[in-house]
Amino acid sequence: MINSSGVMAVLDHHVTINWDDGPTLMRMAGQVRYHTNDSPTVQTLRVTASRRSSEEPLCFYSANADLHATWTVQERNEGWTFQLSVTNENDAEDDMASEIYLDSIEVMRIDSAYGGVFSLGAPTGLWQCSAEHLLLGTGAVADGSVEPDRWALSTPTAAGFIRQRELVVQPSASNRTRPPALLFRALQAEGVSTELQLEITGEKFERFVAQHKLDGTLIGAGVTVASPEFWVVAGDDAEELKRMEAGG
């Protein structure tokens, strides 16, 4: 069953979503990773919920000498979507100085090192992540191969899970009424490189990142690049979540 009790709030300058008898995502932010002509060293622009630019839709922003980033959070079909757009703020008159290369737009980021919480009411050793194949209903998958295991089980020594478009995680047991499941999905992302990574070290959650991978894409002065929307929704039936559509 889909969990419709979720509440999104701004706490301590970050976004938190909590579902009754379900998951908790705490201290979520966005981040842009980029470099310039002057230095190949990766720089970061972090976007929190400290500064609002709009209430409807709810938008937050952050800026430095190079970039202006807008982080948009909207309710969508029992869940929420997150999107991050980035504008090169440099002066176009100096072509070389104004060139910025985007490495990644991290639309959703939760770091335990910064007090972030990703809770399913169970130790990470019990967490499972579903396979990403689109099933055809006949035991085959979209590429014609044999259907793989529907779940890949983490262990205390595993690094976690990486998926390209959709990540569904659910523990095999938890202290909730039923083990809660979370779906993260990149929307309208055909032809766009996306990645969802859930990092685990031993029995500890480390970080979750949903990102638009750009691998050094040039963004000229005044140009804006927007990530796909990433949708998150919770329930207690992973297969039901995977069948859900985000809608308009």
Overall description:
By secondary structure, the chain is mainly beta. It has one domain (7-123, 155-243). It has 2 helices and 19 strands. The chain has helices at residues 95-98, 238-243; strands at residues 7-11, 14-18, 24-36, 43-47, 52-55, 58-63, 67-76, 79-88, 100-111, 117-119, 127-130, 151-153, 160-163, 166-171, 181-186, 194-201, 204-219, 224-226, 230-235. Strands 5, 6, 7, 8, 11, 12, 14, 15, 18 and 19 form a 10-stranded antiparallel sheet that branches. Strands 1, 2, 3, 4, 9, 10, 13, 16 and 17 form a 9-stranded antiparallel sheet that branches. The model is unreliable at 134-148 (pLDDT under 50).
Layout of helices and strands, plus pairs?
Layout: E1 7-11, E2 14-18, E3 24-36, E4 43-47, E5 52-55, E6 58-63, E7 67-76, E8 79-88, H1 95-98, E9 100-111, E10 117-119, E11 127-130, E12 151-153, E13 160-163, E14 166-171, E15 181-186, E16 194-201, E17 204-219, E18 224-226, E19 230-235, H2 238-243
Antiparallel strand pairs: 1-2, 2-3, 3-4, 3-9, 3-10, 5-6, 6-7, 7-8, 8-18, 8-19, 9-17, 11-12, 11-14, 13-16, 14-15, 15-19, 16-17
